[in-house]
Amino acid sequence: MRVIGEYEWARAFAQRQIKSALSSSPKSRQQLLNLTKIPERTLRYNLAILKKTGSIKEILTLSDMRRKIFALNKIKRAGII
To answer: Of all helices (H) and strands (E), which one includes residue 52?
Structure first.
């Protein structure tokens, strides 16, 4: 049995919270901050990891290209990838 360190556990917990918050609908970074109560730096770091692994996708809004919306990647969620 592998022992998980405190840092790894915290990262996994934050990622589960983010995925849970995104399960109902796509959300902005500010909405994720308000829902999950994760510190901004931790949220940014975990969003980058989840994007890199393909678990979530980043959507740019046409009305304001600076604003990004995050959503669960449905293909990854279904277990196809």
So the answer is: helix 40-53
